[in-house]
Task: inverse folding
């Protein structure tokens, strides 16, 4: 998965040119949390926004795409995506405190390292924009 990311500031928003795998990883992180977390309070604690805001970003990231595309994000939406990338793996921690890689990969189609690298690249790109 391509983890390098560039954000361009356009007024109050950021434009990200996302590779298909990047958009898919972001979508999977958000949708995983949306499915597993009940209620807006818990979702807001995890990603800084409630269900309606998460659904709006999910809609923009959805769909199979063969080529890179530009996606516009507010700062709050970037925070939401970053939080989802870092929080989604916590949904797969087993009782003994160990991360369950296989169920995570089956559900999301990605490895935890992919989410970590993309979250890190997102912060780095925002700092450079």
Result:
């Amino acid at each position: 998965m391509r983890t390098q990311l560039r954000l361009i500031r356009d007024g109050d928003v950021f434009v990200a040119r996302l590779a298909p795998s990047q958009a898919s990883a972001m979508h999977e992180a958000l949708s995983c949390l949306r499915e597993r977390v009940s209620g807006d309070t818990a979702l807001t604690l995890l990603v800084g926004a409630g269900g309606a805001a998460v659904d709006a970003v999910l809609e923009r990231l959805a769909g199979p795409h063969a080529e890179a595309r530009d996606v516009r994000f507010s700062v709050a939406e970037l925070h939401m995506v970053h939080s989802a990338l870092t929080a989604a793996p916590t949904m797969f921690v087993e009782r003994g405190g160990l991360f369950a890689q296989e169920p995570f990969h089956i559900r999301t189609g990605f490895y935890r390292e992919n989410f970590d690298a993309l979250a890190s690249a997102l912060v780095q790109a925002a700092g450079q924009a």
